[in-house]
Amino acid sequence: MKQGLAPLHPLNENAYVYERLSDSQIRLIRLYADEDHQPLQGEIIRTSIMDAPPFWALSYVWGAAPTSLDADYFNVSNKRLMITPSLHNALKSIRNRGVSILLWADAVCLYFNRY
Description:
Blueprint: E1 25-31, E2 41-48, E3 56-57, E4 72-76, E5 79-83, H1 85-94, E6 101-104, H2 106-109
Parallel strand pairs: 2-4, 3-6
Antiparallel strand pairs: 1-2, 1-6, 4-5
């Protein structure tokens, strides 16, 4: 492992920790507006499936799973969420400079193998 890098997992203080959903909730990503050279930032919100605000569903190729040595990150509420390079590229390409957007992306919103 390279010096200064540590795998991100729930015990790491910098890692984003998901909150459980009720049976009627979904997660959405609010991708903050920013310049292209800035890191991806936003928030993950929980909302009722029946009262969800309008959002875009993102379809992309997953690609290889990230590792702590080559990971891309989505910064969520001062925490870091490891994402695949393909999701990182997709989010960077649709990020708007003037307004935040609300999205659903399976790798983030479903939280596979965890809840």
